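ARCHIVE CARD
Drawer: 12
Card no.: 0347
Subject: one protein chain, sequence and derived structure
Cross-reference: see card 0346
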Amino acid sequence: MKIKWGVIGGGGIADRRTMPGMLLAGNAELAGIMEVNGDLAGKLGEKYGVKAYDSIESLFAGCECDAVYIASPVVYHKEQILAAADAGKHILVEKPVALTAGEAQEAADYCEKKGVLLAAGFMMRFAAYHQQMKKWVAEGKLGKVVNASGQFTCWYPEIKGAWRQKKSLSGGGALMDMGVHVIDLLQYVTGSRIRRVGAFCDTKTFSYEVDDSASLLVQFESGANGCIHANFNIPDEAAKWRVEFYGTKGRIIGDETIGQAEAGEVDALFTGGGAGYDAAQNKKTARQAEAEVELGNMYTKEIESFGESLLKGLPLECPAADAVFVQRVAEAAYLSAETGKFISLL
């Protein structure tokens, strides 16, 4: 059996990554695309061989779908989630779930009341390298995690009409668009939530109203510390996307493992612990661990995982509750930047 999908917001990431990934999913079928731009809707319908619609109402009236994928501007997420829930559709929504964490929680509560599943589009959880990292940490290979950090950046200059550059449409800038992926991955891999955050969030380079630079100092519930950097003002060719985990028994560094494609390299070394103090701090040669994984398509895995939850009653890999908390962390960072104080979440 295949889950029939409707797509709300067919341009951008939906066309670039998610719908092509959906076509490769063994348990999914693309049934219809909704895009408010009529010309684009027609082109997308022709490209993917399905009927296109220019409103949610027409999509639900004309498309027989079991679930919807929402990739519209963030300002519309909540109302579209509620409409989908009223229509009895299960929902996968791009991050952030809604304009604010409060609205996101309201949407999640409404879906629970209506008996429909709501998952968030943190597709990087499905990257094979990240799942291997999580497995290593859970197995105790790192010992006690003492630091978890990461950075995710791009070059995003002023673009006329770009909704991500208006806070009223996006909820935030580099931190809300890029940094939330790092927040989510650090919590996912370590299995520990962030409990305290201090931050600098600024617009240093461009003239739009959202942040183009964000740096966070965070402390996890486990006691580990970390740093998170998100920028819109680093040239793409100079950008270095990384996640790093250090513990009492080793390290895991993901170099270019984050992004829109499964790629990069993993540098992992596990010492086993128990070494004595070396005053000279001479590094001893230790055997590096190999991440023996098969790289694939994160978006296909994301769609298939959601389908498995529907068809077999399995827990969602990325439930809305996790995304709501990630958004709370981001909002706490903005508050910290405004007040100059550390903000506690737990």
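Annotation on reverse: Residues 320-339 form the longest helix (20 residues). Residues 114 and 140 are 40 Å apart (CA to CA).
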